[in-house]
Amino acid sequence: MSLKIAADNFPPLLVGETENFVVVREYDEGRDKVAVEEMEKRCEIGPRGKPSLVTDLMGDPICRIRLFPSHVMLVAECGEGGEMAGVIRACIKTVTRGSSGYVKVAYILGLRVSPSHRRLGIGIKLVQEIEKRCKQQGAEYSYMATDCTNESSINLFTRKCCYTKFRTLTMLVQPVHAHYKPLGSGIATIRLTPKFAETIYSRVFVDAEFFAKDIGTILSSKLNLGTFMAVPKNCLPQWDPKTGILPSNFAILSIWNTKEVFKLQVKGVSKLTHACCTGSRLLDAWMPWLRLPSFPDVFRQFGVYFLYGLHMEGKNAPRLMKALCAFAHNMARDDDGCGAVVAEVGQRDPVREVIPHWRKFSWAEDLWCIKKLADEKPDVDRESEPPDWMKRQSSSPVIFVDPRDS
């Protein structure tokens, strides 16, 4: 059962005067659901003549943070009529910050301001209020993620809310074709139990950044479709999982089903583009032996499989990781309505060069910005304190991406 951040000590925040005053308060599902959905639809309408990616939260505006034990969603109302002007979400979790141990962080997402109420400072008010609530729940840092080309979002957080550009990740997208992908010969794919997967992940990601302390909860979630390990078949007779010793060559990943939380749809493409994409898929379905790189039907709502916990070791590891990605693709191929397999990894992560993807179908680089919320502790010995996370480069190239953040 998910526990929301207590709101008893947070009365509505009133800002401004007369017709422009803004009320920031906690989201009330019965009262706000329809207004929030309508407002977010207005925010997602792209420029005329250009394709846009539209997200359908399937009637649950709080779905993207519901799986976190601590979460909050705020709305902003403007004017005497209480018109819905903005919304913001956040969750609190405990993650690693590299070799310096665990830290409590707030992840801010889903900030939207109605097009008719922009440049009134509403976005800043929402960020400040949600930071205050997260800080009172013990969050030492807050961070957010946005497309590197989203200048308005970057400027809001870095210039007006004092966030620092922190890490850059790559989003890799593999469309789900009409044909199955070959797994390669001599490779065994093993499904791991959540408990065994937790043991492996806790070991291999011990020095990574943002590795979730509640990884066991993630792996046991109904949205987790399984954790899979690929190893050479010839090593199976010699490997005994009970010893706790990992094979010398292996790759591992987990698969998260986002299509149960939200769905995507591409709108605004030309008729010619639509026809070409449809034709490629029909041709691939009729002649699968050609293994054409067909384009999925993204013009109707589709779901995504998110790959996380990607790790590999050994000289044959790249081939094993490619086999696992093909295995995930084939699972998605059998799931009606799943249009893509997605992974997000750090720019220095070795798996980045191995994961199959379409360059033109992949989104831009993802920029993570961070801010320190915790006040300085006057009575703490500075030498015993871990170094400021914001001021150092991690020794590990790996950034663990929580699938609940997707």
UniProtKB/TrEMBL annotation:
Domain N-acetyltransferase: 22-207
Region: Disordered, residue numbers: 377-406
Membrane-crossing segments per the record: none
Compositional bias segments (type: Basic and acidic residues): 377-391
Protein name (database record): N-acetyltransferase domain-containing protein
A molecular-function term among this protein's GO annotations: acyltransferase activity, transferring groups other than amino-acyl groups
InterPro entries: Acyl_CoA_acyltransferase, GNAT_dom, Plant_NAT
SUPFAM superfamilies, per database record: Acyl-CoA N-acyltransferases (Nat) (SSF55729)
Organism, as annotated: Populus deltoides (Eastern poplar)
PANTHER family: ACYL-COA N-ACYLTRANSFERASES (NAT) SUPERFAMILY PROTEIN (PTHR47370), N-ACETYLTRANSFERASE HLS1-RELATED (PTHR47370:SF6)
